[in-house]
Amino acid sequence: MLEAVITQLKETGNATAEELERILTDDSCDTFLFDAAAEVKRRIYGDTVFVRGIIEFSNYCRCACAYCGIARGNTDLPRYRMQPEELIAEGVEAAKVYRTVILQSGEDTFYTAQMLGQIVSEIKSRQDCAITLSIGARSEEEYRVLRAAGADRFLIKHETADAALYEALHGEPPDNRLRCQRDLRELGYELGSGFMIGLPGQTAQIIAQDLLLLQEMRVDMAGIGPFIPHDGTPLAGCAHGDARMTCKAVALARLLLPRCHLPSTTALNVKGGMADALRCGANVIMQKATPFAYRKLYDIYPGRDAQDLPLREQYERLREQLGMMGMEIE
Ligand code: 5AD
């Protein structure tokens, strides 16, 4: 019967919260689910994988998210911040390799919207590319300035759709996050959201709500990754998010939002899941384009990346790896 529910979801793009919860908690049809998601992805994107380069330009953060290694409470972490000139130069180099460059940071108020806007427009004027910002919550006016400067897309995850769990982890209700998402959408950004799997206190019922929230917000992108406990946070010692459950959530997102860009999140890659994620509906890979000296300091969760390769070589290696899996880069 579960197969019938999955088939119906695949055909209509819809499922109830109860149906999603059943699929998430019953593992008897996982292969059927992954195959359905892979088929929908293939119908839309063929064998094409989209690759993005991400520059993590500051690890200063004013937030105190309980799961995050760069939260302000982690006083053991040395902080860095790239100056605008350096960020522009690195952005241009990344844009020569990747057609989309993601500029990500902690919530660092050092950078005003005007500064970031200049950085975005300067990179785009020197090298044709799309720019995604991932810099956290700002005012509608700031988002407007950044959009006018040429920012194309924005990633800001809802993290968890459960308001009580959100507040427990962030010390504030989710309202402002959701306000940001709505503002960004109205300003014409392509909107990226997402959430974590395996947060302490999360249930399958909550994951079902996470998935339905992505659908309700009609997001263009969704990063779904496992929670990985970080020693420098209040959640040190908690259990890791489950890779299989993450793949199931990615597969369900593919069925609910067939055209959505779904990265194999770096947190999942840490757990060796890139190939699995691509097989169950993901269509995007993100690669680090952060200058080597800063990479270890952008310590959101442990175990990120082993190798530091020049961007072009890193990209070519990925192309080879994907080629062996029968896939090609956009
Ligand atoms: N484990 C997994 N993902 C995490 N993030 C932050 N901390 C962790 C963690 N411990 C994710 C959040 C955030 C993104 C930048 O990284 O989803 O939005």
Plain-language structure description:
The protein is an alpha/beta fold. The chain is built from 14 helices and nine strands. It has helices at residues 2-12, 17-25, 30-45, 84-97, 113-126, 140-148, 163-170, 175-186, 204-216, 243-256, 266-270, 274-279, 292-295, 311-324; strands spanning 48-58, 100-105, 130-134, 153-155, 190-197, 221-226, 263-264, 284-288, 328-329. Strands 1, 2, 3, 4, 5, 6, 7, 8 and 9 form a nine-stranded parallel β-sheet that branches. Helix 2 crosses helix 9. The radius of gyration is 19 Å and the shape is globular. The mean pLDDT is 96. Bound molecules: 5'-deoxyadenosine (5AD). Residues 67-68, 157, 159, 196, 225, 227-228, 230, 267, 300-301 line the site of 5'-deoxyadenosine.
Name some characteristics of this structure.
9-stranded parallel beta sheet, 330 residues, alpha/beta, 45% helix, 9 strands
- Tertiary shape: globular
Structural class: alpha/beta
| Unreliable sequence segments | none
* Percentage beta strand: 5-15%
Give the overall average pLDDT. Answer: 96
Ligand species: 5'-deoxyadenosine
Largest sheet: 9 strands, parallel
Spatial separation of the terminal alpha carbons: 37 Å
What is the percent of helical residues?
40-55%
Output the helix-strand order.
Answer: HHHEHEHEHEHHEHEHEHHEHHE
Quickly count the helices: 14
Number of strands: 9
| Rg, alpha carbons | 19 Å
